[in-house]
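note to self — DONT lose this again. spent like an hour looking for the file last time. sequence + predicted structure for the chain T wanted, 376 res
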Amino acid sequence: MNIPLIPVLLTSHLFAAVLGFAGTRMLFASRHRDPARGSILGAVIGLVGGLIILYVFWLAFLRWVSVRARGGSVYTELASGFKSVRRIEGLGVAGVLLVLYAVFIMTSEEVFTKPRIYTSFMQTVSPQLIIALGLTLVITAGEIDLSFPAVVALSGFVFAWSYKNIDASWGPWAGLSLAILAGAGVGLINGWIVAWIGVPSIMATLAAQFFWYGVTVLLADGKQLALRGVRDGIDYHIRDERLFKLFVGKIDGILPDQNGVPVGLPSQALWALGLTIMVWLILNRHKFGEAVLFVGDNAEVARVMGIDVGMTRIKLFVLMGALSGFAGVLVTLDNWVFYPTQGEGFLLPVMSAVFIGGTSFAGGQGVVFGTLFGAY
């Protein structure tokens, strides 16, 4: 018997969400002092509540089906299907995120029913998510990189210095390229030390963090660098505004207005989402991703299978450095200024996003969309 399990689950969850959305929305809208806000509050609580209740029902049904499963019976097929559903990437973290969101809505309604809190969150979290994507791949391969806070600072300095000192129309774009190359260069050095010299990655990258932070402070002379011209147009004009709008600008017309004031969607959130999809495709749909998983699971077996373990690790550290460099540029642009200490607070949030998302510290298993949910 062929049971279309995924369509049945999706349809039932959608139906429960719509019922919860409509019913609770009407209830809250009729009883709340502000019908519009009560409508939003009820819709969110109903949507999340409907999904949670139905998910709990399916888990209970799965246990009943597993108990009754017999070889070749419909129960065996159902049990197998439900186990495959439970392995959907990031599903558990997304569920926890929805529950927390419902709790926040109910306890801090004045804050979480307004769109500006979400744009601020996306603006802050996006650079951390971009770094966490690279770290997900590195940890999946059984390694670790602790140098990324220093790379955020170094790349930010390279970008800010180039922006201010290259007096040409292509100066800011050269700064962007040099900043990413600087991050990739740090990653290349880290990868070479780990893969060819054999220094454990936790020691090599921790030392690299202190070293490159020191280099950045020396190069910047301990001072901040303001990106003059981006805000006031004194030194540079439309080319800088285009750079700003492309990477950290606000896109109007997507989110609802707040108190009559447009609330724009941060561009960096779209960059983070696009890179999330790209990294997922690399890990799950590309030969390099297969090599990363094999190396993380068992490096010796991967070597016997013909995988260049050393080169795979080097590529991962280079990619990690490039993503950290790009994140450093976003932080600098978003702040309008480079700080020698930028990136210092990134270590714990980035690592937490990776491990909360479900990536195994032992390697061999990487959950990209789990990292996305873990970051937020």
